[in-house]
Specification:
203 residues, alpha/beta, Rossmann fold, six-stranded parallel beta sheet, 7 helices, SDR_fam, oxidoreductase, oxidoreductase activity
Length: 203
């Protein structure tokens, strides 16, 4: 399979699933636009890509100006957008007994609101190319797990967002799908402060 000539925008591409996705698409000759908050790591991933050097767009997806810039820069550089991969997200521990509204807002802002906004801005261009949107959800969007309440809720929201947008854009020949991977040990878990024992409970 080749994605030669296809423009693929990947969020959260500086590590974990997003980084692996970028490298894989590069092996399929895609034209990449990668974004994340860590410029150094984005450059490291770009150096591992096999095809054309990816366009690197640093940004914080909770910042609306940064989100606007991600789309504008991609279109300015490539002239189109074929595939949007909404991968960026954060994970934090917290049950109904020890969570907070601050944590809830923080997780939903990055895991849901930012995807909602970026997709809104990307859709006109993806309709033009009859392209694809892929949202990286999680098994926790389908099954209940203790101790990561806000995260589970955010991924369930992404699954419903995916279904609704798929129905809305199907008449325009745009496919919208979510992937729900099982627990994959990445920096996402380490950065959340999750211990090895807590991680084992999810595996």
């Amino acid at each position: 399979m080749s994605f030669a000539g296809k423009v693929v925008l990947i969020t959260g591409a500086s590590s974990g699933i997003g980084a692996a996705t970028a490298i894989h698409f590069s092996q399929l000759d895609a034209l990449l636009s990668i974004t994340g908050r860590n410029v150094q790591k984005l450059n490291e991933i770009a150096d591992q890509c096999k095809s054309n050097k990816p366009l690197i767009i640093p940004g914080d997806l909770t910042n609306e100006t940064d989100v606007q810039n991600i789309i504008k820069s991609t279109i300015k550089h490539y002239g189109k957008l074929d595939i949007l991969i909404n991968n960026a997200g954060i994970l934090e521990n917290g049950s109904i007994e020890n969570t907070s509204l601050e944590q809830y807002d923080r997780i939903f802002n990055i895991n849901v609101r930012s995807i909602y906004y970026l997709t809104m801005l990307a859709v006109p261009y993806i309709i033009q190319t009859k392209g694809n949107i892929v949202n990286v959800s999680s098994v926790v969007g389908l099954r209940s797990f203790p101790g990561v309440l806000s995260y589970c809720m955010s991924k369930s929201a992404i699954d419903q967002f995916t279904r609704c947008v798929a129905v809305e854009l199907a008449p325009k020949q745009v496919r919208v799908n979510a992937v729900n991977p099982g627990v994959i040990t990445t920096n996402l878990h380490k950065n959340s402060g999750m211990s090895d024992e807590e991680l084992k409970k999810l595996l």
